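Try this one yourself first.
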């Protein structure tokens, strides 16, 4: 997926991503810049939807790795192929966990998300049909959790662009597990499953409770660094996450996806404004 997103970003703006090898250089004779002009014209008016994005990804995946010449680069020159796939109206079904993550994120682009990172990783197995998080995985601290028969778990609120691993620098340098794996569920899905939020007096963020199946969360993850409190546990949890089939996306891929969708929304909204 990362190569596809880099490819699409390169077509949107070759200054945003410049490292796609083997593509034709921008002809600048007479002061012209035509490298991406064709692609941007072809996608004007195409709404930034998950179906359009997945359609382009499926078309890209089905292309041969090389073009007719060995210098054509990754998947060759395929601007028209991608633009044509993005125009197709039919619904696209995700083929794997990463595509499911893209669909969930893109379909809820404007939502606020409930965010929870697993605390005691040995009790988390990412079962798609079971609620996340398992109550046994909570840290037993705080007024909400310590109450008898409590179903509350600590959460933060987030939105695109997710700040999961950058908003609390102190925590990053302490290396708890939730700064390497974070689950997100959109507020619309949270409410669909009768999720509740509560702000207890002893904490600066919310607690939540609700029976939201793990398959309706998207998990963003990154590799443990030198600050990781329990790097082996984090790596094992990432391994279980990848085996589970629930929506997941690497932090680096998410950053690129966000830039792609941000550019696409700008192109689409500007075109609508000019036509009004």
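Now uncover the answer:
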């Amino acid at each position: 997926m990362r190569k596809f997103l880099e490819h699409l970003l390169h077509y949107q703006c070759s200054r945003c991503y410049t490292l796609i090898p083997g593509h034709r250089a921008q002809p600048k004779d007479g002061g012209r810049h035509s490298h991406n002009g064709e692609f941007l014209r072809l996608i004007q008016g195409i709404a930034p939807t998950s179906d359009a994005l997945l359609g382009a990804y499926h078309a890209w995946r089905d292309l041969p790795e090389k073009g007719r010449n060995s210098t054509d680069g990754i998947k060759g020159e395929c601007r028209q192929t991608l633009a044509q796939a993005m125009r197709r109206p039919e619904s696209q079904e995700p083929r794997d966990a990463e595509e499911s993550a893209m669909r969930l994120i893109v379909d809820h682009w404007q939502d606020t998300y409930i965010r929870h990172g697993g605390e005691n990783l040995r009790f988390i197995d990412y079962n798609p049909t079971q609620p996340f998080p398992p109550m046994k995985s909570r840290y037993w601290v705080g007024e909400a959790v310590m109450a008898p028969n409590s179903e509350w778990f600590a959460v933060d609120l987030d939105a695109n662009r997710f700040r999961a691993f950058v908003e609390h620098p102190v925590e990053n340098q302490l290396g708890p597990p939730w700064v390497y794996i974070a689950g997100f569920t959109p507020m619309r899905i949270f409410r669909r499953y009768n999720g509740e939020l509560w702000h207890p007096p002893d904490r600066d963020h919310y607690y939540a409770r609700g029976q939201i199946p793990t398959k309706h969360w998207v998990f963003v993850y990154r590799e443990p660094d030198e600050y990781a409190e329990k790097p082996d546990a984090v790596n094992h949890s990432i391994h279980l996450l990848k085996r589970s089939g629930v929506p997941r996306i690497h932090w680096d891929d998410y950053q690129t996806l966000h830039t792609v969708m941000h550019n696409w929304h700008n192109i689409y909204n500007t075109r609508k404004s000019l036509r009004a």
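Discussion: The first strand starts at residue 112 and ends at 116. The chain has ten helices and eight strands.
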